[in-house]
Amino acid sequence: MVCDKELAFVFPGQGSQKLGMLSGLAKKYSIVQKTFNEASDVLGYNLWQLSQQGSQNELNMTERAQPLLLTASVAIWRIWQQEDGAVPTLMAGHSLGEWSALVCSGVVEFVDAVRLVQLRGKYMQETVPVGVGSMAAIIGLDDQVILDVCKEAEQGEFVSAVNFNSPGQVVIAGHAGAVERAGYLCKEEGAKRVMALAVSAPFHSELLRPAADRLAVDMASVVFSQPDILVVHNVNGKAETNPLMIKQLMIEQIYKPVLWVDCVNELVTQSVSKVVECGSGAVLSGLIRRIDRSISVLTSDTPEKLSMALSERRATEK
Predict the structure, then answer these.
(1) Domain tally for the chain?
(2) Could you give the residue ranges of the DSSP H alpha helices within 29-82?
(3) DSSP structural state of residue 225
(4) C-alpha span between 110 and 36 (Å, rounded)
(5) Of 217, 263, 275, 210, whose CA–CA distance to 238 is shortest?
(6) What is the pLDDT of residues 23-33, one digit of tens each?
(7) CB distance 94 to 9 below 8 Å
(8) Active-site residues (predicted)?
(9) Is the pTM of this model over 0.90?
C-alpha cells in the first residue's frame, strides 16, 4: 500500500448511526460481518442484528451507539486495506470517532476499544441523570460571544461550549436550566438558530469528569501503542506519538471540548487536501466543507461511495 501524503481519514461520532447502516457493503464484503461478529463476541449481543433490525431508539442509546459506530468505521477501514487503498498520512475522529481513529492507526486493539467505548457510553449516561443535563447547537454566532454568554448564564449551575464544529456552529452543554438560559441569551446576541439536541447527557462538559475517572480505571490495564498513522486529537488539535500521553488525552476528551475546527486546520497545515470520511453518514464531510472549502471530501458507507473513493485514490497513485 502506498502512502498518500495529501490524504487523511476522519471518523464520525455519535449521531451518525442509522438503521440499516452498511447493509450494501456487508453484501459485497464479508469482512463487514466478520468485524461485527468480533464486536458482538465482546458485547454479548448481536450488534449486526441491532444495526439492521433494531429500533432507532435503541441505536441512539449511548452505550449501544458508541460500539456500533466504532465497529462500522473499523469495518470500512478493513475493506479499504483489503482493496489496497492508499495509506493516509493522518487521521482524526470527532468525539467517539477518535477511538475509531486509534484502532485504525494501530494504537488500540479493536476488541479492547469495543469494550472501552461500551463502558465509556455507560459511564457518560450514568454520571448525569436523564433530564439534569442537556445540549444545544448555536448557529451563526461568534465563538467568543458564546463563551461570554455561557459565563453569564451559569448562575450557580454549569454550561460551556463543548463542540467547536465549524465556523458559526458551536454546541453548548451543561445543566439543563443553564443551557436554556444560554440559548436565550445567544438569540438576544443575534444567533440565527438555537437547537436543542436529542441527547441524554451533557457530553464533553465538566459535568462528565466522574465518567472520565471511571474509564481511566478500565483503561489502566489496556495497552496503547505508538501510532502507525498519526492521529490529530480533539483536546488540543495536535498529533501525539507517546502512548501514555494518548491515553491521557482520551481520558480528558470525555470532559473537555471537541476542537474540531482546530483538528481540520491542523490537517490542512500538514498539507492534507483530500479527506475520506470512514464511517456511517456524511456529517463530518459537511463540517469540513464549511471549515475549508479547498479540501476534497469523500464518503464511504455504500459500495458506490467507497468505490469512488478508492478509484480516486488509485488514480492519484498512478
Answers:
(1) 2
(2) 30-43, 47-53, 56-60, 62-82
(3) -
(4) 11
(5) 263
(6) 999 999 999 99
(7) no
(8) 95, 204
(9) yes
184 neighbors 155 (Cβ within 8 angstroms): no
Bin 305: left if φ > 0, else alpha if -120 < ψ < 50, else beta. alpha
Q: End of a domain among 199, 233, 256? A: 199
Give the CB-side neighbour count of residue 276, counting CA atoms within 13 A: 29
Last residue in a domain, options 176, 199, 222:
199
Residue 315: which pLDDT band, with cuts at 50, 70 and 90? very low
| 95 belongs to the catalytic site | yes
CA 93, 98, 102, 103 dihedral sign is negative
Please pick, among 16, 40, 51, 95, the residue that the annotation labels catalytic: 95
78 and 222 part of one domain:
yes
User: Same domain, yes or no, for 17 and 105?
Assistant: yes
Convert the pLDDT of each residue in 103-155 to its tens digit. Answer: 999 999 999 999 999 999 999 989 998 889 999 999 999 999 999 999 999 99
Strand 230-232: give its sheet, edge to edge.
230-232, 87-93, 3-11, 274-277, 296-298
Q: Helix %, strand %, coil % for the chain, to 5? A: 50, 15, 30
